[in-house]
Amino acid sequence: MSDSQQVITEDQWHQAKAIWDYHQMHHQAHPADVAIGLGSHDLGVATRAAELYHEGLFPTLVFTGGNSPTTAKVFPRGEAVHFREHAIDLDVPASAILLEPRAANTGQNITLAREVLADAGITPKKVLLVSKPYMERRSYATARKLWPEVEMVCASETLEFDDYLKSIGDEKLVVDMLVGDLQRVIEYPKLGFAIEQEVPEDVRAAYESLIHAGFTSRLIAS
To answer: Which stretches make up the DUF218 domain (predicted)?
Structure first.
């Protein structure tokens, strides 16, 4: 950890953990018509999607995502392309993977992946959304808004909060991301981007406390 990276306090850890738990939908993964792996900086999405494929939960997997400022250097050919390559390295057959290489946000992930599936002649009734652990709730709320007739089930790597902090190696960045995603869960329904999600009082209090403490780099202008 560099000198510029902030170590969070014990209170901040507990606040962030409350938000981490809230972000996860705690769905039980079960057979679906397709899975959609949402592009991001986290290659663990592709790893988890490959695991679920090998468990026989779906026959077709779509990886969706172009590039963003946070992923361009890590995945120069685009998030979906690198995710696909990683899944193939994990013995998912290339024939089982569809590619959507343009999406720049979660709404586009859902909309463009749906178009790719339609072009392949696939109209799913049940979709398994595979994302980063703290992105489950936002991806679920977005997908339910944009594709309400489909049953959505969320999945992510089964990591404890401490393990995820260690895997990223920057505690402040992780807390910033948790806070930023919660802001989107709260604000996006007002903009028509997602369905409303109830936020428990303790989670909202943790969110407001962390914003006051300066964990704000991933907030959008309101």
So the answer is: 36-150
